[in-house]
Amino acid sequence: MALIDLLPKHLFTNRGWGLLASGVGSLLLAQIMGRRDLLALGILLLVLPLVSLAGVRILKPRFQVFREFHPASVETSSTATVRLAVARTGAAAGPVIMEEQLPARFGEPPAFRFPARAASGGTSRYEYHLRSGKRGQFRIGPVTAEFCDPFGLSLHRHEIDDGDILTVTPAAVELPATGLAGARGNDGVTATRIRANPSDDDVMTREYRHGDPMRRVHWAATARHGELMVRQEESVTTPEATIILDQRYSAFVSGSAAVFGPTHEDAFELVSSENFEWVVTAAMSISAHLADRNYSLRFLDAAGHPAFRASRSAPYPETEEFSGLGGLQSIAESLAAIQLSGPRHVHGERSHKEAAGVADGAEAPFDDHLMDKLAAHRLRGPVLALLGNMPLSEARALAPAAGYGANAFALVVTDHPHHVQPVIEALKLGGWRAVAVSSRTDLPAAWAGFDQGEIVAAAAAAMDVRRGAAVPR
């Protein structure tokens, strides 16, 4: 029995190994004794397991697998329910133990017996739960099973489906109410007066509604349309917010920073860092905070392109404008697999030529293309920038962008907030309300700090002390 335990378990059963051993023994005896009948028996005993092994690999059992996730995408640290339906489409065989393959982060793969005791209509249904503390996309499955030939001699593990992708989105952190919206009301709309004394050429009119005062009737438009028309001197507009999401590798990776990246075992691993993960959480939280106040949102990257065009989880990669609950869900899914991109150098390691221009064919950040995008929506709402480390030249290039927003806010995420004060000052000179934070800074405290003017020393240092980090002097 000890010898059998040392043999491979996924080729032959104990019966199969026994026949092979008996066949070898018969061949030896036939050689020694000169018996042809033992030779024939030995050959038969060897051929049977080998034929069974070939057959179980060629004639694979056929199944259909249907897999559903509830919800379809799940937030980090929340539970997703996986529902499986497995149906046999080929010739019937005996019961089999199946196993759902999972990434290592989800723990032991669940195993189940097919057919299930409660199977109906030839379909067996199963359910289990998953939870991930990290955002991203993960392949769930395939379902594998070890099948045996009718004689019980050989084994082979089959994958009976291709698996499905589970999207884990970053969870939003609740942010405190601030004065970011300026004069906009809590309902997310603002009244915009067109003119105090509009002329007949540019006045806005609409049809008369019950209760409208007669003094607002516009007689010229009434005569032109053939129905009672009134002046509409105020229009209600949906507020807009533009979020500049820096996702450059060089902005978030320093010489000492830990970088996450794909491995051979997990090709779905994202290229990221602790600072960038803080930025992603901030982007999700700010989006949820503003969407609750009926803001429409626009996401751009540092070069002025749609921020999610490189995210493999983005439902609409080329889209940059989002509104409503559907838009917020699209933002969440797009942020699930967003990762650092661009040249793999860090600031301070570039050559003089690269510092003066663009490296490795990448587009220059904060250039005219971004400014043109901001100018197209000039003063329609606040501009928010979620940034990483940047040289002073880039800060000066970004500084004028504050003039395109009703308000301008910038969060600069860095390992050493006190080292980027020249960058912060350059942004402030351009009109930004800028703050340097670290990945240890409490996001709600940083957000609330915009109402306080200065939060570098107060919020960032206080959080570092509470978490036991050394506070730079």
Q: What is the typical, i.e. mean, pLDDT? A: 82
Largest sheet: 6 strands, mixed
In order across it, which strands form the biggest sheet? 19-18-15-20-21-22
Helix content: 25-40%
Strand content: 15-25%
What gap, in angstroms, lies between the N and C termini? Answer: 69 Å
Q: Residue ranges: pLDDT <50 for 5 or more in a row?
A: 182-202, 349-361, 454-473
Count of runs of 4 or more consecutive helical residues: 13
Rg calc: 33 Å
The count of DSSP E runs of length 2 or more, i.e. the number of strands, is 22
Structural class: alpha/beta
Q: Overall 3D geometry?
A: elongated
Explained architecture:
By secondary structure, the protein is α/β, with parallel strands linked by helices. It contains 13 helices and 22 strands. The strands form seven sheets. Strands 19-18-15-20-21-22 form a six-stranded mixed beta sheet, sandwiched between helices. The protein is elongated. Residues 182-202, 349-361 and 454-473 have low confidence and may be disordered.
